[in-house]
Predict the structure.
Amino acid sequence: MSKIHAALTGIHCHLPDYVLTNAELEQMVDTNDEWIYSRTGIRERRILKGEGKGVSVMGIEAVRGLLEKTGTDPSEVDLVICATVTPDMMFPDTANLIAHALGIKNAFCFDLAAACSGFIYALSTGAMYVQSGMYKKVVVVGSDKMSSIIDYTDRATCIIFGDAAGAVLLEPSQEPVGVMDFMHRSDGVGQEFLHQKAGGSRRPASRETVDNREHFVYQNGKPVFKYAVTGMSDIVQKVMKRNHLSQDDVAWVVPHQANMRIIEAVAGLLNFPIERVMINIHKYGNTTAATIPLCLWEWESRLQRGDNIILTAFGGGFTWGAVYLKWAY
Ligand code: UT7
């Protein structure tokens, strides 16, 4: 029997309307557009406003659009995986809430938490269910409402993050397209540099944790920066070597959008022309699990069937990895 491939057959994203500019951040903390743009490459980011609106609001819109675009009936979906570190609630999972809102009734659903690597972890996990022959329609969503865990008095973090969601459909194909290979890694050494101090079982929410502002993202940016550059460039090289891909064979590199300087450094170490690196960090900042689908979605009309694409991400945990994707349409 020939191998079943997991083809990515559609993509759709959702961006909230509100645009948080560097100029507005200048009114909120001691920062300025020049510092933010030169140190991160970010000009603006989107924020989901509105009482009672959780991350599922964006995930639902991304998946709704995906199902419409691909002509998929909700009853056909077998599995929904939602990559997020900002779920609506600790439980039930956001994937479950998305499925419920859209009438996806014949699926099992779960969340996957791998911070900024969430989308590529979830994509490769979903691909395995398709490649095994078990499932025919798998929805992978990357959705984060980072504004819900950002301290807008902390200039070191509030300038970086934004909110968004992106969703893809994976379906079986006899042709060699879709998720061709992946390599992922995790290292708990990273917990020290990037974490949320309270709200989990180690330090449950209390008056004290709220007073101490411990429910927000804590980041020591410099070490994260260094690990991110080394981690992504190293793992992309390994995946390319294993698949006998040279720089010329790869149409696009799609890096997680955390910092323009990280993206440039990774492209430099890979000796890969920056013109073939997808970059939209200036418009959306770091949307955690949504950065990679946001890039693919914006570039969709320029992609061609058979294009070799390398996705790579690095995030809290630490978590990192690379996916070799062959564009299917
Ligand atoms: O996506 C998940 C993984 N996360 C990442 O990949 C993020 C990796 N790290 C980074 O992107 C960068 O480290 C940051 C953008 C977070 C920070 O940039 P940096 O160049 O590492 O700055 P820094 O933290 O070393 O701070 C340099 C200076 C400091 O002032 P002094 O001590 O030199 O006087 C900061 O206080 O810049 C100051 N600073 C700011 N100034 C204006 C820090 N934040 C700001 C700010 N506006 N928003």
Summary: The domain at 5-176 is CATH 3.40.47.10 (Peroxisomal Thiolase; Chain A, domain 1).
